[in-house]
């Protein structure tokens, strides 16, 4: 039994709608993975800075009230670069 042209077009439209929804779910899943990965890396970088003493309590002026030193970010830059290199190599492995 042959279907009419209208029925065939309606079937194709229905399948196209299903495929668009499937594509949207796949893109959303990939975006969520990327967002989780970025959050994970931000947390890791924060941990590296914290462990290296790069995150000191600061005032609005950028100097620690007790020590008079800056926030420590510039002192932590070499450690941050090393940590980012480690994270990149870990990300490339898995």
Main sheet properties: none
Low-pLDDT residue spans:
57-62
Strand tally: 0
Please state the average pLDDT score.
76
Summing up helix and strand content along with how strands pair, one would put the structural category as mainly alpha
Q: What proportion strand?
A: under 5%
Helix content: over 70%
Give the overall shape.
rod-shaped
Radius of gyration: 26 Å
The SSE order reads HH
Count of discrete alpha- or pi-helical segments spanning 4 or more residues: 2
Spatial separation of the terminal alpha carbons: 53 Å
Oligomerization: single chain
Write out key terms for the chains shown.
94 residues
Give a quick rundown of the structure.
This protein is an all-alpha fold. Helices cover 72% and strands 0% of the residues. It contains two helices and no strands.
Chart the SSEs and their pairings.
Layout: H1 5-51, H2 73-93
Helix pairs in contact: 1-2
What can you tell me about this protein's structure?
- The protein has 94 residues and is an all-alpha fold.
- The protein is 72% helix and 0% strand.
- Helix 1 (5-51) crosses helix 2 (73-93).
- The chain is rod-shaped, with a radius of gyration of 26 Å.
């Amino acid at each position: 039994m042959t279907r009419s042209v209208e029925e065939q077009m309606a079937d194709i439209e229905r399948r196209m709608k299903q495929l668009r929804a499937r594509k949207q779910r796949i893109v959303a899943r990939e975006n969520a993975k990327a967002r989780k990965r970025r959050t994970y890396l931000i947390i890791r970088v924060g941990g590296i800075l914290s462990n290296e003493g790069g995150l000191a309590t600061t005032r609005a002026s950028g100097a620690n009230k007790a020590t008079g030193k800056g926030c420590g970010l510039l002192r932590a830059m070499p450690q941050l670069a090393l940590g980012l290199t480690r994270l990149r190599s870990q990300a490339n492995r898995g």
